[in-house]
Amino acid sequence: MPKAKGKGRRHKYSYNLNRKRLYRSARRRAAPRIACSHIRHAWDRSKSVAQNLADMGLSEDPNKALPIPKMGMVEESSGQQPGKKIVRKPYVVNEMEYEASLPEKKSNTLSRDLIDYVRYMIQNHGENYKEMARDEKNYYQDTPKQIKRKINVYKNFYPEEYKDFIASLKPEKMDVQ
Fold first, then answer.
1. Where does the secretion signal sit in this chain (predicted)?
2. Where does the chain have alpha helices with state H?
């Protein structure tokens, strides 16, 4: 049986096909991805995004919440705020404000390999960065400035550990002399 005509040809891209229509229904059904746990727990799937955020006292559009005043236009305040909305779930904003007021943990850490590398360089070469750059353990071929930067990062992240390390090196140098 002969081959069907046109099957071996490369398919051409159809510019006239509306691909948005194909994916529109799938996008409507998908629930929004909510990162904040407080909002996720207070979310009501039967309401729209705007209604949910309004119930929590949050704004859907920051440009509408805090409009930028135009130059030359002076607003007259009559004492009443137009469009004052009722916040049904104020605990969401309160929990978010409390969480934001907590002090942030310092998560600055260096890899064990980098710490060992810096300690080796300081132990063998002291403050001579040019000599460190020529060392055989300088696998990544760091320049003297790059090595100095790594040592400064180590000093800033672990100041106590660095002081103890330098103090432990001083007796060794005195024994040598």
1. none
2. 20-29, 37-42, 49-56, 62-65, 90-101, 112-125, 129-133, 144-157, 159-176
